Amino acid sequence: MSQSVAALLKLREVILSGSLPPGERLSENGVAERLGASRTPVRAALARLAEEGLLEPIPSGGFMVKAFTEREIRDAIEVRGTLEGLAARFAAERGASPEGLAHLRDILEGIDAVLVRDPAAGIDFTEYVTLNEHFHQLLLELAESPVLARKVGQAVALPFASPSGFVMAQGALPEARVILTVAQEQHRSVVEAISLREGARAEAIMREHARLAHRNLALALRQGKLHLVQGGALIQRRLPA
Amino acid sequence: MSQSVAALLKLREVILSGSLPPGERLSENGVAERLGASRTPVRAALARLAEEGLLEPIPSGGFMVKAFTEREIRDAIEVRGTLEGLAARFAAERGASPEGLAHLRDILEGIDAVLVRDPAAGIDFTEYVTLNEHFHQLLLELAESPVLARKVGQAVALPFASPSGFVMAQGALPEARVILTVAQEQHRSVVEAISLREGARAEAIMREHARLAHRNLALALRQGKLHLVQGGALIQRRLPA
Amino acid sequence: MSQSVAALLKLREVILSGSLPPGERLSENGVAERLGASRTPVRAALARLAEEGLLEPIPSGGFMVKAFTEREIRDAIEVRGTLEGLAARFAAERGASPEGLAHLRDILEGIDAVLVRDPAAGIDFTEYVTLNEHFHQLLLELAESPVLARKVGQAVALPFASPSGFVMAQGALPEARVILTVAQEQHRSVVEAISLREGARAEAIMREHARLAHRNLALALRQGKLHLVQGGALIQRRLPA
Amino acid sequence: MSQSVAALLKLREVILSGSLPPGERLSENGVAERLGASRTPVRAALARLAEEGLLEPIPSGGFMVKAFTEREIRDAIEVRGTLEGLAARFAAERGASPEGLAHLRDILEGIDAVLVRDPAAGIDFTEYVTLNEHFHQLLLELAESPVLARKVGQAVALPFASPSGFVMAQGALPEARVILTVAQEQHRSVVEAISLREGARAEAIMREHARLAHRNLALALRQGKLHLVQGGALIQRRLPA
């Protein structure tokens, strides 16, 4: 791993963990010192994180850790859902291969197995997240569009916009089982729509699927579970009036 | 033609021509006398026109000629566009035959020929309307859905909701050529979308295509050309404030 | 109730119950005798049921009880979902009143109560159907479009296309609870979308909501439960190859 | 302007102009020499252009000038149209201010003026492009979504995906006037849809609007006018069979 990549990964983690609070100004020197890295890779990492949206450029020079409002996060989720919707539509219109569809159905069975296990034992969220990420990744591959894949990749760089962004927070909530059941139904319906070449339907389902995250966000905000969300420390709670 | 069908056609024409003004109460006896028909086929015709929406049942019994507000006509056009949109989507998703697509392209060429003729000579609107109705009819056939075909048939029973409902009024307007050019572009795009199996796109285009009629309606209202529209006598002009 | 209405209701019931099998030819005289009615109201009833789609006109005259293929039923459900989707979009775009939204939320709570009761006791499907029909009816009213309301009314005249068409068949199935949970989530999401004036979302949800019936239809077909569906006797089972 | 920005702009221009052909491998040293810049800003520029999609990373290290297939360009246009569609929907749903709408209508009048001028004199494409870019920019502002604005910005970084990407090529074509007339109709319709808060319609129009570029691309490819398109040198012509 190059020095640049190492610096980028470390800096991103520091920001998402909340160690650098929203609004904090970052200088090349300060970050270089904190990470024990030299200035050139730090400069590149700062530029990249500004590109991703985690940092904001300051007019006077330098960067500031971004604070995200609830509305910005909803918008980021909507953008991700819109792009994943486009991917599902492409997959349906272009005609997914039988192998690709079989692979998606295998993942569905895996998620079914996670959900129907002994309720007393609870849901294995780590396994769920792994299967869920795999499902979303495979769907993107079926779209056969490197241009779109790049855009979805940029859209999920903000961790709270990613398909599994709020699942761990959800884990602590009593509504978790209902939400995961609904999510799995949407997975199942989008696979059906793709196999029937119903692109409009596939697109609409993926958009609505992303919006489950809105609800999880609202629950996490209400119940003070933001620390369970990656990047949750950057989310601005509204001040009491 | 049976007596019932004859009575229905005559009564519908009388109403659409404006000879029976909106709000007029119709009794079986009165209509039978007017049409020179017996009461049984008249009763069936009244029931059928109420079903189509041209007559309104009166609580005390009997029927009244319906007056349509601008909003009701816009809604009728939107319903027709929505159903034609569904037909275009079905055609795209189910895969139209090469023959069907070739037939649609022939009609497109015919309309092109109508539009590019000597501008000084003007547009032959009768020929345009014939080709346009044929285009819409063929699109519906490509959907391969008798259930939907029946619904579209019911939706265009109101003449101002039909695909050619306002073309004759448009004929008298200077904007006519631009509107027909745009309409033809939409025809061309929907054929392309169907042949590429892009159902969401095909659906959206047909919806927008129907909305050209909104604009024609507004122009016809503004310029006092409603007498050129079949059924225009039933449209309620808003009173000056 | 007039003789005509009485004859219509009785004949519709006889057909939906399966007492007159698909393909059966109906003559005015035969039906009049069977119902103990005179010929004029019977003629009107036959015409009306042909309009609704339960009867097919025979080229040589008279009518035949319609047989419905699985594809025709899917299309009828899609048409209904498309029109209900339009209603939800109108409600969102035109701005539903706070009272209307509060009323919808009351129904949601009622359905929640039906679903969370003691699982051992089972679900009260009759209560569910009453609340569900009320929800769909109210949504239609919020669209404020008499033209559209008429079209939805025509679309649900085929009983297997109606929002509750397959619920009773579902009642006998183990998947029932999951399907009703997903349906209720869709109810909840459409109310949210309307209150946020998100018309595209509201429309897409209602379309997908209707498609739950596809699944119920497939389950009912597979498990031989068609007799639990109103009009199920008219559905053509595919012959074994 | 910092050294980094200067290096980025220069390198981007060199690539889009076609001076570095698709497939060309770029080393930091080689580029630094060519631009007369030092290695640090060159490294940042290379990373950024890879991010934008103009360069591809080579597994063995370094970058290669990307060649774009027709399909990739169509996908890039579709992504841009999808994101602009989302912006138009947000503007409609969130309620654009009267001032914002008035501003959009002013631009429409400006474009009308460009289009109706003396046909013999031809269309002033430079003025058209300026007004068109302004229209698209303002629409984005009405969406009130910095998150989305960033994504659209990334999507139009590929010049052939931008709203005016093919207008100059179009300028040389006889079809230009029809295409611009249709484009202007779409501009007008999206403004109407936003002002009526019809989000689904606004979204669909902007998607279709973007697809006009597909047609221009096909025309430019067919007529060998790619040199008139910024970045046209990167587009892979299909080889004759």
Structural overview:
4 copies of one chain form a homotetramer. With 241 residues, chain A is mainly alpha-helical. The first copy, chain A, folds into 2 domains: 1-63, Orthogonal Bundle (Arc Repressor Mutant, subunit A); 68-231, Four Helix Bundle (Hemerythrin (Met), subunit A) (Up-down Bundle). The first copy, chain A, has 10 helices and 3 strands, in the order αβααββααααααα. Chain A has helices at residues 3-17, 28-35, 39-52, 70-94, 98-116, 125-142, 146-155, 167-171, 176-195, 199-222; strands spanning 25-26, 55-57, 63-65. In chain A, strands 1-3-2 form a 3-stranded antiparallel β-sheet. In chain A, strand 2 (55-57) and strand 3 (63-65) form a beta hairpin. In chain A, helix 9 packs antiparallel against helix 10. Chains in contact: A-B, A-C, A-D, B-C, B-D, C-D. The interface between A and D is medium-sized, with 25 and 25 residues.
Brief synopsis:
The first copy, chain A, is mostly helical and 241 residues long. Chain A has 10 helices and 3 strands; from the N terminus they run H-E-H-H-E-E-H-H-H-H-H-H-H. The mean pLDDT of chain A is 88.
